[in-house]
Specification:
Helices cover 18% and strands 24% of the residues. The protein is an alpha+beta fold. The chain has one domain: Ubiquitin-like (UB roll), CATH 3.10.20. Strands 2-1-5-3-4 form a 5-stranded mixed sheet. The protein is globular and about 35 Å long. It starts with a strand and ends in a 5-residue tail after the last strand. The model has no long low-confidence stretch (mean pLDDT 94). It comes from Belliella calami. Keywords: 2Fe-2S, Iron, Iron-sulfur, Metal-binding. Its cofactor is [2Fe-2S] cluster. This is 2Fe-2S iron-sulfur cluster-binding protein.
Length: 106
């Protein structure tokens, strides 16, 4: 299991514990935890409605893919540590990370 913190659109923080042996994406965990993540494209990196900002732990995640960057660059606002939750796999590298929801909230 991996534990990380999610900051919602209102600034509230909550720790989330997720299995790191099932190949799930961060987007899938956020949706299962009932966060308002639209994920319109279903995790194909085509819509950027699962936009997150990594506040802590970004160096462990590595670089975003070109496909991911293409979507992020089309957003009205994105940050140096912006990522698409659908492209981040749940793994031990997320341990202790803090992420902030940035995508549309319904």
């Amino acid at each position: 299991m991996v534990t990380f913190t999610v900051e919602d659109h209102d600034g509230n923080r909550q720790s989330i514990e997720a299995p790191d042996d099932m190949g799930l994406s961060l987007m899938e965990i956020l949706k299962a935890s009932e966060y308002p993540v639209l994920a319109t494209c279903g995790g194909m990196a085509l819509c950027a409605t699962c936009h997150i900002e990594v506040l802590e732990g970004e160096e462990a995640l590595g670089e975003a893919t070109d496909t991911e960057l293409d979507q992020l660059e089309n957003l009205p606002e994105y940050f140096p540590t912006s990522r698409l939750a659908c492209q981040v796999r749940i793994s031990p590298i997320l341990e202790g990370a803090v992420i902030k929801l940035r995508g549309e909230d319904n």
